[in-house]
Model the fold of this input.
Amino acid sequence: MRRLRPRPIRLLAMRQIDLREYESRAIPLSGAELAALQEYRQELGLDIAPGTASGSWVLKPGSTVGALEIGDLLAVVIRPKLQIGRVLFLASYALGAFRLRDIERFHFAEDSSAVEALARFFAAASRRAFRRGLLRGYRSREEALTTVRGRIRFDEQIRRRFAIPLPVEVRYDEFTEDVRGNRLVRAALHRLHAMHIADMGLRGELLRIEAVLAEVTLREYAAHAVPEVAFDRLNEHYREVLGLAGLILRHGTVKTDHGTIRAAGFLMDMNQVFERFVRRALREQLALTRRAFPAPDDMPRLFLDQDRKIRLEPDLSWWRNGTTCRFVGDAKYKALGSAHAPNADLYQLLAYATALRLPGGLLIYASGEADPTVHYIEHAGKRLEVAALDLAASPPALLGQIRELAERIRGAAAAVRAHAA
Done:
Protein backbone atom coordinates (compact mmCIF):
# COMPACT_ATOMS: atom_id res chain seq x y z
CA MET A 1 0.00 0.00 0.00
CA ARG A 2 1.23 3.49 -0.73
CA ARG A 3 2.19 5.82 2.09
CA LEU A 4 0.27 9.04 2.55
CA ARG A 5 1.10 12.44 3.89
CA PRO A 6 -0.94 13.71 6.84
CA ARG A 7 -3.73 16.03 5.83
CA PRO A 8 -4.83 19.00 7.98
CA ILE A 9 -8.35 18.85 9.37
CA ARG A 10 -10.62 20.89 7.16
CA LEU A 11 -12.84 23.77 8.17
CA LEU A 12 -14.43 25.16 5.03
CA ALA A 13 -17.04 27.81 4.40
CA MET A 14 -19.63 26.10 2.23
CA ARG A 15 -23.35 25.82 1.97
CA GLN A 16 -24.85 22.99 4.02
CA ILE A 17 -28.03 21.23 2.93
CA ASP A 18 -29.78 19.39 5.76
CA LEU A 19 -32.04 16.48 4.84
CA ARG A 20 -33.65 13.63 6.74
CA GLU A 21 -33.92 9.98 5.80
CA TYR A 22 -36.89 9.32 3.45
CA GLU A 23 -38.26 12.90 3.84
CA SER A 24 -38.69 15.27 0.88
CA ARG A 25 -37.56 18.87 1.02
CA ALA A 26 -37.82 21.66 -1.59
CA ILE A 27 -34.62 23.68 -1.79
CA PRO A 28 -33.50 26.46 -4.19
CA LEU A 29 -30.32 25.42 -6.03
CA SER A 30 -27.95 27.20 -8.34
CA GLY A 31 -26.91 25.54 -11.58
CA ALA A 32 -23.54 24.54 -10.12
CA GLU A 33 -25.14 23.11 -6.96
CA LEU A 34 -27.64 21.10 -8.98
CA ALA A 35 -24.87 19.72 -11.21
CA ALA A 36 -22.86 18.70 -8.13
CA LEU A 37 -25.83 16.90 -6.59
CA GLN A 38 -26.61 15.16 -9.87
CA GLU A 39 -23.03 13.90 -10.08
CA TYR A 40 -23.19 12.29 -6.64
CA ARG A 41 -26.87 11.39 -6.43
CA GLN A 42 -26.09 7.67 -6.52
CA GLU A 43 -23.68 7.85 -3.56
CA LEU A 44 -26.23 9.92 -1.65
CA GLY A 45 -29.18 7.72 -2.66
CA LEU A 46 -30.97 10.95 -3.60
CA ASP A 47 -34.05 11.52 -5.77
CA ILE A 48 -34.03 14.95 -7.41
CA ALA A 49 -37.17 16.41 -9.01
CA PRO A 50 -38.21 19.94 -10.11
CA GLY A 51 -40.02 21.96 -7.46
CA THR A 52 -43.03 24.23 -7.89
CA ALA A 53 -41.09 27.48 -7.45
CA SER A 54 -38.59 28.74 -9.99
CA GLY A 55 -35.10 27.42 -9.28
CA SER A 56 -36.45 25.08 -6.59
CA TRP A 57 -35.75 21.35 -6.54
CA VAL A 58 -37.29 18.62 -4.38
CA LEU A 59 -34.65 16.43 -2.76
CA LYS A 60 -35.65 13.10 -1.24
CA PRO A 61 -33.06 10.81 0.38
CA GLY A 62 -33.55 7.09 0.65
CA SER A 63 -31.94 4.78 3.20
CA THR A 64 -28.47 6.37 2.99
CA VAL A 65 -27.51 8.54 5.96
CA GLY A 66 -24.40 10.54 6.81
CA ALA A 67 -22.64 13.50 5.22
CA LEU A 68 -20.87 14.23 1.95
CA GLU A 69 -18.84 17.30 1.03
CA ILE A 70 -18.86 17.99 -2.69
CA GLY A 71 -15.83 20.10 -3.60
CA ASP A 72 -15.84 23.44 -1.79
CA LEU A 73 -19.43 23.99 -2.87
CA LEU A 74 -21.84 21.89 -0.81
CA ALA A 75 -22.02 19.86 2.37
CA VAL A 76 -25.00 17.48 2.24
CA VAL A 77 -26.07 16.08 5.61
CA ILE A 78 -28.69 13.29 5.69
CA ARG A 79 -29.85 12.67 9.24
CA PRO A 80 -31.29 9.29 10.22
CA LYS A 81 -34.72 8.83 11.73
CA LEU A 82 -33.09 7.11 14.69
CA GLN A 83 -30.97 8.91 17.26
CA ILE A 84 -27.42 8.98 15.94
CA GLY A 85 -26.09 6.95 18.88
CA ARG A 86 -28.46 4.10 17.95
CA VAL A 87 -27.26 4.18 14.35
CA LEU A 88 -23.62 3.94 15.42
CA PHE A 89 -24.47 1.08 17.78
CA LEU A 90 -26.17 -0.89 14.99
CA ALA A 91 -23.36 -0.25 12.51
CA SER A 92 -20.63 -1.07 15.02
CA TYR A 93 -22.32 -4.25 16.24
CA ALA A 94 -22.82 -5.34 12.63
CA LEU A 95 -19.05 -5.31 12.14
CA GLY A 96 -18.64 -7.71 15.05
CA ALA A 97 -15.51 -5.97 16.31
CA PHE A 98 -16.84 -4.71 19.66
CA ARG A 99 -19.96 -3.87 21.65
CA LEU A 100 -20.97 -0.37 22.67
CA ARG A 101 -22.52 -1.54 25.93
CA ASP A 102 -21.91 1.87 27.48
CA ILE A 103 -23.43 3.81 24.60
CA GLU A 104 -26.03 5.39 26.90
CA ARG A 105 -23.44 7.67 28.47
CA PHE A 106 -22.88 9.41 25.11
CA HIS A 107 -25.48 12.06 24.43
CA PHE A 108 -25.73 14.06 21.23
CA ALA A 109 -27.89 17.00 20.32
CA GLU A 110 -30.60 16.36 17.76
CA ASP A 111 -28.62 18.33 15.15
CA SER A 112 -25.42 16.30 15.63
CA SER A 113 -24.12 15.02 12.32
CA ALA A 114 -22.99 11.43 11.81
CA VAL A 115 -19.43 12.64 11.16
CA GLU A 116 -19.07 14.64 14.39
CA ALA A 117 -20.86 12.00 16.48
CA LEU A 118 -18.57 9.30 15.12
CA ALA A 119 -15.51 11.50 15.64
CA ARG A 120 -16.49 11.99 19.31
CA PHE A 121 -16.91 8.24 19.80
CA PHE A 122 -13.56 7.68 18.13
CA ALA A 123 -11.73 10.28 20.22
CA ALA A 124 -13.14 8.87 23.48
CA ALA A 125 -12.30 5.29 22.48
CA SER A 126 -8.76 6.36 21.54
CA ARG A 127 -8.23 7.96 24.96
CA ARG A 128 -9.34 4.78 26.70
CA ALA A 129 -7.15 2.57 24.51
CA PHE A 130 -4.04 4.74 24.84
CA ARG A 131 -4.22 4.90 28.66
CA ARG A 132 -2.42 1.56 28.70
CA GLY A 133 0.11 2.76 26.16
CA LEU A 134 0.36 2.27 22.44
CA LEU A 135 0.03 -1.24 21.13
CA ARG A 136 3.41 -2.72 20.27
CA GLY A 137 4.55 -5.89 18.56
CA TYR A 138 7.42 -7.54 16.74
CA ARG A 139 7.90 -6.87 13.05
CA SER A 140 10.48 -8.52 10.82
CA ARG A 141 12.76 -6.08 8.97
CA GLU A 142 15.44 -6.51 6.33
CA GLU A 143 18.11 -3.80 6.05
CA ALA A 144 21.72 -3.11 5.18
CA LEU A 145 23.52 -2.01 8.38
CA THR A 146 27.06 -1.16 9.39
CA THR A 147 26.75 -3.50 12.39
CA VAL A 148 25.37 -7.01 12.66
CA ARG A 149 21.86 -7.20 14.09
CA GLY A 150 19.77 -10.34 14.07
CA ARG A 151 20.75 -12.75 11.29
CA ILE A 152 23.04 -12.11 8.33
CA ARG A 153 21.38 -12.71 4.97
CA PHE A 154 24.37 -14.44 3.39
CA ASP A 155 22.74 -14.99 -0.02
CA GLU A 156 21.86 -11.30 -0.33
CA GLN A 157 25.25 -10.24 1.03
CA ILE A 158 27.07 -12.23 -1.65
CA ARG A 159 24.67 -11.20 -4.44
CA ARG A 160 24.74 -7.48 -3.67
CA ARG A 161 28.12 -6.88 -1.98
CA PHE A 162 30.52 -9.63 -3.04
CA ALA A 163 33.91 -9.07 -1.33
CA ILE A 164 32.64 -5.89 0.38
CA PRO A 165 32.22 -6.44 4.14
CA LEU A 166 30.06 -3.39 4.89
CA PRO A 167 27.21 -2.72 4.99
CA VAL A 168 25.84 -6.08 6.10
CA GLU A 169 22.51 -7.43 4.81
CA VAL A 170 20.60 -8.53 7.91
CA ARG A 171 17.15 -9.63 9.02
CA TYR A 172 15.94 -8.85 12.54
CA ASP A 173 12.77 -8.53 14.61
CA GLU A 174 11.97 -5.05 15.87
CA PHE A 175 9.65 -4.35 18.81
CA THR A 176 7.70 -1.40 17.45
CA GLU A 177 4.45 0.54 17.67
CA ASP A 178 4.22 0.50 13.85
CA VAL A 179 1.80 -2.46 13.86
CA ARG A 180 -1.50 -3.15 12.14
CA GLY A 181 -3.74 -1.98 14.98
CA ASN A 182 -2.09 1.43 15.20
CA ARG A 183 -2.00 1.75 11.41
CA LEU A 184 -5.75 1.22 11.25
CA VAL A 185 -6.34 3.88 13.91
CA ARG A 186 -4.14 6.37 12.08
CA ALA A 187 -5.76 5.57 8.73
CA ALA A 188 -9.16 6.27 10.30
CA LEU A 189 -7.85 9.61 11.60
CA HIS A 190 -6.66 10.46 8.10
CA ARG A 191 -10.12 9.67 6.74
CA LEU A 192 -11.74 11.91 9.37
CA HIS A 193 -9.34 14.73 8.47
CA ALA A 194 -10.82 14.76 4.96
CA MET A 195 -14.27 15.56 6.37
CA HIS A 196 -15.76 18.80 7.62
CA ILE A 197 -15.65 18.98 11.43
CA ALA A 198 -16.86 22.32 12.74
CA ASP A 199 -16.18 21.77 16.46
CA MET A 200 -12.78 23.38 17.16
CA GLY A 201 -12.24 21.42 20.37
CA LEU A 202 -12.93 18.12 18.65
CA ARG A 203 -10.60 18.99 15.78
CA GLY A 204 -7.85 19.77 18.27
CA GLU A 205 -8.40 16.50 20.09
CA LEU A 206 -8.08 14.51 16.86
CA LEU A 207 -4.81 16.29 16.11
CA ARG A 208 -3.49 15.37 19.56
CA ILE A 209 -4.40 11.74 18.97
CA GLU A 210 -2.54 11.80 15.66
CA ALA A 211 0.53 13.25 17.37
CA VAL A 212 0.63 10.18 19.62
CA LEU A 213 0.79 8.04 16.46
CA ALA A 214 3.51 10.09 14.78
CA GLU A 215 5.85 7.08 14.42
CA VAL A 216 3.15 4.87 12.89
CA THR A 217 3.07 4.44 9.12
CA LEU A 218 0.14 6.22 7.47
CA ARG A 219 -1.52 3.91 4.94
CA GLU A 220 -4.68 3.87 2.90
CA TYR A 221 -7.18 1.01 3.00
CA ALA A 222 -9.90 0.42 0.44
CA ALA A 223 -13.38 0.05 1.95
CA HIS A 224 -13.64 -3.57 0.78
CA ALA A 225 -10.12 -4.50 1.97
CA VAL A 226 -9.95 -3.34 5.58
CA PRO A 227 -7.97 -6.08 7.37
CA GLU A 228 -9.35 -7.79 10.44
CA VAL A 229 -7.48 -7.93 13.73
CA ALA A 230 -7.44 -11.03 15.92
CA PHE A 231 -7.85 -10.06 19.57
CA ASP A 232 -6.08 -11.59 22.54
CA ARG A 233 -5.15 -10.48 26.05
CA LEU A 234 -2.41 -8.20 24.69
CA ASN A 235 -4.61 -6.09 22.41
CA GLU A 236 -8.09 -6.55 23.93
CA HIS A 237 -7.99 -2.92 25.15
CA TYR A 238 -7.94 -1.83 21.48
CA ARG A 239 -11.19 -3.63 20.60
CA GLU A 240 -13.43 -0.57 20.81
CA VAL A 241 -11.17 1.89 18.98
CA LEU A 242 -10.45 -0.64 16.22
CA GLY A 243 -14.18 -1.28 15.84
CA LEU A 244 -14.75 2.41 15.24
CA ALA A 245 -11.70 2.62 12.97
CA GLY A 246 -13.16 -0.18 10.86
CA LEU A 247 -16.48 1.65 10.70
CA ILE A 248 -14.78 4.84 9.50
CA LEU A 249 -12.63 3.06 6.92
CA ARG A 250 -15.55 1.06 5.51
CA HIS A 251 -17.99 3.95 5.25
CA GLY A 252 -15.80 7.05 5.11
CA THR A 253 -14.83 7.66 1.51
CA VAL A 254 -12.95 10.17 -0.60
CA LYS A 255 -14.24 10.14 -4.16
CA THR A 256 -11.70 11.16 -6.79
CA ASP A 257 -12.11 8.31 -9.24
CA HIS A 258 -14.90 9.73 -11.36
CA GLY A 259 -16.58 12.97 -12.33
CA THR A 260 -15.27 16.50 -12.19
CA ILE A 261 -15.75 17.37 -8.50
CA ARG A 262 -13.90 15.81 -5.58
CA ALA A 263 -16.10 14.63 -2.72
CA ALA A 264 -15.41 13.28 0.76
CA GLY A 265 -17.78 11.99 3.38
CA PHE A 266 -19.17 9.29 5.62
CA LEU A 267 -22.24 7.49 4.27
CA MET A 268 -24.08 4.37 5.44
CA ASP A 269 -26.92 2.51 3.75
CA MET A 270 -29.30 1.70 6.60
CA ASN A 271 -30.73 -1.23 4.61
CA GLN A 272 -27.31 -2.89 4.74
CA VAL A 273 -26.65 -1.82 8.33
CA PHE A 274 -29.93 -3.31 9.55
CA GLU A 275 -29.50 -6.55 7.60
CA ARG A 276 -25.92 -7.05 8.87
CA PHE A 277 -26.88 -6.18 12.44
CA VAL A 278 -29.74 -8.69 12.50
CA ARG A 279 -27.61 -11.42 10.94
CA ARG A 280 -24.67 -10.84 13.30
CA ALA A 281 -26.85 -10.62 16.41
CA LEU A 282 -28.86 -13.75 15.55
CA ARG A 283 -25.72 -15.70 14.67
CA GLU A 284 -24.23 -14.87 18.06
CA GLN A 285 -27.42 -15.65 19.98
CA LEU A 286 -27.69 -18.98 18.17
CA ALA A 287 -23.97 -19.66 18.78
CA LEU A 288 -23.41 -20.45 15.09
CA THR A 289 -20.43 -20.01 12.79
CA ARG A 290 -20.38 -17.84 9.69
CA ARG A 291 -20.56 -20.99 7.59
CA ALA A 292 -23.69 -22.18 9.38
CA PHE A 293 -25.39 -18.74 9.36
CA PRO A 294 -23.85 -17.06 6.30
CA ALA A 295 -24.22 -13.79 4.46
CA PRO A 296 -26.00 -14.11 1.08
CA ASP A 297 -22.69 -14.09 -0.83
CA ASP A 298 -21.39 -17.01 1.24
CA MET A 299 -24.41 -19.31 1.13
CA PRO A 300 -25.00 -22.06 -1.46
CA ARG A 301 -26.45 -20.73 -4.71
CA LEU A 302 -30.24 -20.87 -4.61
CA PHE A 303 -32.71 -20.79 -7.51
CA LEU A 304 -36.50 -20.85 -7.63
CA ASP A 305 -36.85 -22.52 -11.04
CA GLN A 306 -35.62 -25.81 -12.48
CA ASP A 307 -33.59 -24.05 -15.19
CA ARG A 308 -31.69 -22.11 -12.49
CA LYS A 309 -32.46 -18.69 -13.94
CA ILE A 310 -34.39 -17.11 -11.04
CA ARG A 311 -31.73 -16.45 -8.40
CA LEU A 312 -32.76 -16.07 -4.75
CA GLU A 313 -30.60 -14.49 -2.02
CA PRO A 314 -32.23 -14.52 1.43
CA ASP A 315 -30.68 -12.30 4.10
CA LEU A 316 -30.88 -14.98 6.80
CA SER A 317 -30.36 -18.72 6.54
CA TRP A 318 -29.20 -21.57 8.80
CA TRP A 319 -27.34 -24.45 7.14
CA ARG A 320 -26.18 -27.87 8.27
CA ASN A 321 -22.96 -29.07 6.65
CA GLY A 322 -23.39 -26.39 3.99
CA THR A 323 -26.05 -28.43 2.18
CA THR A 324 -29.22 -28.68 4.27
CA CYS A 325 -31.12 -25.51 5.20
CA ARG A 326 -32.98 -25.46 8.53
CA PHE A 327 -34.28 -21.88 8.52
CA VAL A 328 -34.75 -18.96 6.11
CA GLY A 329 -35.69 -15.33 6.68
CA ASP A 330 -35.33 -11.77 5.48
CA ALA A 331 -34.55 -8.47 7.23
CA LYS A 332 -36.49 -5.42 6.04
CA TYR A 333 -35.43 -1.90 7.01
CA LYS A 334 -38.90 -0.41 6.97
CA ALA A 335 -41.78 0.11 9.35
CA LEU A 336 -44.50 -2.49 9.73
CA GLY A 337 -47.48 -0.18 9.97
CA SER A 338 -50.20 -2.78 10.30
CA ALA A 339 -50.68 -6.42 11.16
CA HIS A 340 -49.98 -7.37 7.55
CA ALA A 341 -46.61 -7.27 5.84
CA PRO A 342 -46.56 -6.00 2.24
CA ASN A 343 -47.61 -8.67 -0.22
CA ALA A 344 -44.33 -8.41 -2.16
CA ASP A 345 -42.33 -9.25 1.00
CA LEU A 346 -44.55 -12.24 1.75
CA TYR A 347 -44.25 -13.49 -1.84
CA GLN A 348 -40.48 -13.23 -1.56
CA LEU A 349 -40.41 -15.21 1.69
CA LEU A 350 -42.75 -17.79 0.16
CA ALA A 351 -40.32 -18.20 -2.75
CA TYR A 352 -37.44 -18.80 -0.31
CA ALA A 353 -39.38 -21.42 1.65
CA THR A 354 -40.51 -23.13 -1.55
CA ALA A 355 -37.04 -23.28 -3.10
CA LEU A 356 -35.51 -24.61 0.13
CA ARG A 357 -38.40 -27.04 0.82
CA LEU A 358 -38.95 -25.54 4.26
CA PRO A 359 -42.31 -25.34 6.07
CA GLY A 360 -42.01 -21.55 6.34
CA GLY A 361 -39.83 -18.57 7.13
CA LEU A 362 -39.55 -15.29 9.09
CA LEU A 363 -39.72 -11.62 8.06
CA ILE A 364 -38.04 -9.17 10.47
CA TYR A 365 -38.91 -5.48 10.14
CA ALA A 366 -37.07 -2.48 11.55
CA SER A 367 -40.07 -1.13 13.46
CA GLY A 368 -43.78 -1.60 13.95
CA GLU A 369 -46.52 -1.61 16.52
CA ALA A 370 -48.25 -4.77 15.34
CA ASP A 371 -47.96 -7.96 17.33
CA PRO A 372 -46.03 -10.84 15.74
CA THR A 373 -48.27 -12.45 13.12
CA VAL A 374 -48.36 -15.71 11.19
CA HIS A 375 -49.77 -16.21 7.70
CA TYR A 376 -50.74 -19.76 6.75
CA ILE A 377 -50.52 -20.44 3.01
CA GLU A 378 -53.00 -23.27 2.73
CA HIS A 379 -52.34 -24.73 -0.73
CA ALA A 380 -48.56 -24.39 -0.40
CA GLY A 381 -48.47 -25.72 3.14
CA LYS A 382 -46.26 -22.84 4.32
CA ARG A 383 -46.20 -20.82 7.56
CA LEU A 384 -44.90 -17.26 7.11
CA GLU A 385 -44.09 -15.41 10.33
CA VAL A 386 -43.71 -11.64 10.71
CA ALA A 387 -41.94 -9.79 13.53
CA ALA A 388 -40.65 -6.26 14.18
CA LEU A 389 -37.73 -4.89 16.20
CA ASP A 390 -37.88 -1.63 18.14
CA LEU A 391 -34.62 0.00 17.05
CA ALA A 392 -35.26 2.99 19.29
CA ALA A 393 -35.01 0.75 22.35
CA SER A 394 -31.85 0.74 24.46
CA PRO A 395 -29.10 -1.64 23.24
CA PRO A 396 -29.76 -4.16 26.05
CA ALA A 397 -33.50 -4.13 25.30
CA LEU A 398 -32.87 -4.48 21.57
CA LEU A 399 -30.58 -7.44 22.13
CA GLY A 400 -33.28 -8.91 24.34
CA GLN A 401 -35.67 -8.77 21.37
CA ILE A 402 -33.02 -10.51 19.28
CA ARG A 403 -32.81 -13.29 21.90
CA GLU A 404 -36.56 -13.84 21.63
CA LEU A 405 -36.32 -14.11 17.85
CA ALA A 406 -33.40 -16.51 18.18
CA GLU A 407 -35.54 -18.79 20.34
CA ARG A 408 -38.27 -18.79 17.69
CA ILE A 409 -35.71 -19.63 15.02
CA ARG A 410 -34.20 -22.39 17.17
CA GLY A 411 -37.64 -23.92 17.61
CA ALA A 412 -38.39 -23.75 13.88
CA ALA A 413 -35.03 -25.36 13.04
CA ALA A 414 -35.65 -28.13 15.59
CA ALA A 415 -39.02 -28.87 13.99
CA VAL A 416 -37.40 -29.12 10.55
CA ARG A 417 -34.74 -31.47 11.92
CA ALA A 418 -37.34 -33.66 13.62
CA HIS A 419 -39.45 -33.85 10.47
CA ALA A 420 -36.41 -34.83 8.39
CA ALA A 421 -35.55 -37.58 10.87
In short: The radius of gyration is 26 Å.
